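So, can you check these tokens?
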Amino acid sequence: MALNDGCASLEEAVNAYIFKKTEDNNLKLREELVSFINRNDTVLTSVRILKKGATFDDVADEKNADGSRPISISLVGANDGAWIPAFTSNEQKTLGAGHELLETGIIWLLDYALSVNDVKGVTINPFGEQLNLDRDSIRTLLRAANVEAGLGNTEE
């Protein structure tokens, strides 16, 4: 079951886009993402770093209660760097390795991804029908939703 109605709609739009990449599905996905951001709907994530501008090296020795790292870097084939996971439901989370998760607003998560230099972006449902939002895509979506990224340090 999705975390909220917005998550259910977003998951549906992602799946439609992944399975059939048409212009209509692309437009629906973009509209759903902007709407999701405007409502600041919540997702599940494994992000536990709270200080601005932190890097993975800063928390290399930290562990969550379940023994996992504070930020999950468990995406297969993510040799280009770390992608922060965003799960739209508990079911999506359980498709992959388990992590201690917290619920957070999507704006905070997107802002956070831009504030950490060694994060490449956010990946929605990384163990299901995965959709990657790189840093440029995140900035574009935040602008389209008229949201100011407020965590600073957005240099690549």
User: Anything to note?
Assistant: The CA atoms of residues 124 and 130 lie 6 Å apart. Confidence is low (pLDDT under 50) at residues 72-77, 151-156. The radius of gyration is 15 Å. The first strand starts at residue 42 and ends at 45.
